[in-house]
Amino acid sequence: MNTVQRSSIALIAGSFAVACGLLSGCIGSEPMGGYQSAMSGNPANGKALIQAYGCGSCHVIPGIRTARGMVGPPLFYYSRRTIIAGELPNTPQNLVTWIMNPVAVEPGTAMPDLGVSDSQAHDIAAYLYTLR
Amino acid sequence: MVRTAKLAFPLLLLLLTGCATLQSIGNTHGPAAHKIALLSHALSITFIIAIVVMWSLIAIALKKNPGSLAEHMPVDAGGGNAWVAIGGIAIPLLSLSIFFFLGLDLLADFPIHGDHGAMDMNATTAKSKPDILIIGHQWWWEVHYLQDPTHPVISANEIHIPAYRPVNIELRTADVIHSFWVPSLHGKVDMLPGNVNFIRIEASDPGSYIGQCAVFCGKQHANMHILLIAQKPADFDAWLAHQAQPAVVANNPETTLGKEAFIAGPCSRCHTVRGIPSDGKFGPDLTHIGSRQKIGANSFPNNNAYLEGWITNAQALKPGCKMPAITQYNGAQLRSLVAYLRQLQ
Lengths: 132, 345
Hints:
The complex is a heterodimer.
Chain A: H1 3-24, H2 43-53, E1 83-84, E2 88-89, H3 92-100, H4 102-105, H5 118-128
Antiparallel strand pairs in A: 1-2
Chain B: H1 2-17, H2 31-64, H3 81-107, H4 121-128, E1 132-137, E2 140-145, E3 153-156, E4 158-162, E5 167-173, E6 178-181, E7 189-191, E8 197-201, E9 207-213, E10 225-231, H5 233-244, H6 253-264, H7 267-270, E11 294-295, E12 300-301, H8 304-317, H9 331-343
Parallel strand pairs in B: 1-5, 4-10
Antiparallel strand pairs in B: 1-2, 2-3, 5-8, 6-7, 6-9, 9-10, 11-12
């Protein structure tokens, strides 16, 4: 084995190691903002409420088969979003407020007031925060 | 594979037990559906008995006379005449005759008239005096109540009939072939372009019955649902009298804005709301949309969320349907439009 062969093997092995290192960065990385999680509320109940109120008529919502609306934004990775309605920080309380009374937050919004109660809004928020 | 099949079989049986739900020929609530269920059960049972008997006879024959073909030569052709006469002619003739007469009896529930297939559809209709006219569209049902022939009451998708008495329904189509089918009440009757068909439905119990277009009619065929509500006759009369009048809408800024958006916007080009300037005929009549349980040919619940999602982007909910995505309204207009439509009780 001459020097040229030896150095090219070393080069290949080295690139492989670097590539592995890069790939490892793709798995299990925490988002910079972290995950938002619900303070209270029952996610399973929230899922049923999302179906009953028909949130899926306007939003694509992971885990809800009939939720295929293309009116408002899709709700993928909701626990990683930092802003609600383009103006409120994504905190559990703000999310509950937004679900219960969107018009109070954003007077021109198309999102309707569906008459969601406080405890129901907590359940819905709990479900949305399972979307990591 | 075999293991999966073994597991799947009991699961399939479990699914069959689910047949006693609303949309099933086994769940009968009218005389015609009852006859259909009787005929279908009798045929199935007879078929099973015939299969069991035939395979038993084959098993007996195999057990009784084993051996090669050479041992049985020449084949005994003279000994089986009675088997052929009784098993091959007499029994089938008897059982098929019974089914023939059961079938004839069932045909009486499909009002077939002398003019069937005649060129003049309107003459046929005039003779048959239907109570309700249902017109199939891609992919919804237009319903005319003809009780007062001079003032038909037009509605859509949610069909009301009086219970306990036969109701004659005329069936037409505006485009392709559809088929009207409410399994708990009756069989399927096709709606054919350029022709009229009739069905006579009688619901023996008041209640809600689910049905379905039963002939493939295009992209949203599977979402062309029927909701048929049989009411006590007095309730039906009251309902019809109410439907004949325009809806009474509370007068507030939101409903006024919604009404203006309806008239000025694209809605009124395709939809009619009696009592306001709108006479579109392309889509369902919305005069009493707020009173209906579902929207999109009974595909989605009639609530604020679905109504708004449907108005702005029906294409996402029912891809290919004739309702276009309406993108010109702002948020406040949309919300007030929904508030107005839900008031049309």
